[in-house]
Design brief:
The protein contains 4 helices and 3 strands, in the order ααααβββ. With 146 residues, it is mainly alpha-helical.
Length: 146
């Protein structure tokens, strides 16, 4: 009986930690998205580095390796346009994680840019397109909500 209770406690704690880590991943991702929206290469590089570290330090989750590899591509991108070109890969993988997580502490909008045929996540319903920045800031739509 004690073993079962211990196992249950570990599972629940692990779930709670994963939910907390998912929120950290999401917050770091949003920092990357905002830097891309503002076309700020320096902030984008810092945010990408934080996102990468949070993925590496997170526990095990199904898409960890995929997310890690796509974020590594972001790290290696030498300018904002190259970062934007890779951002969809990170976004679609993170959306799979977010939409399948039962515990997340905010509403997340999955948004789409028809010009780039690319997705991103936002905690704001208002469209701020990271693929074009100020050039086409409001281009896009919400396609799903979690």
């Amino acid at each position: 009986m004690k073993k079962n209770l211990s196992l249950l406690a570990m599972l629940l704690f692990g779930y709670s930690v994963f939910a907390q880590n998912t929120n950290t991943l999401l917050n770091n991702y949003i920092s990357v998205k905002n830097a891309l929206v503002n076309s700020n290469t320096k902030l984008a590089n810092q945010a990408i580095s934080s996102l990468y570290q949070s993925i590496k330090e997170d526990g095990n989750f199904k898409q960890k390796e995929t997310l890690l590899k796509s974020t590594e591509k972001l790290l290696k991108a030498s300018n904002i346009e190259k970062q934007r070109a890779v951002f969809n890969e990170v976004s679609t993988t993170l959306w799979d994680i977010v939409k399948n997580t039962k515990k997340i502490n905010k509403t997340v909008y999955y948004q789409y840019c028809p010009m780039k045929k690319a997705y991103w996540l936002s905690t704001e319903k208002e469209i701020e397109n990271p693929y074009y920045g100020a050039a086409m800031l409001s281009c896009g739509s919400v396609v799903e909500t979690k």
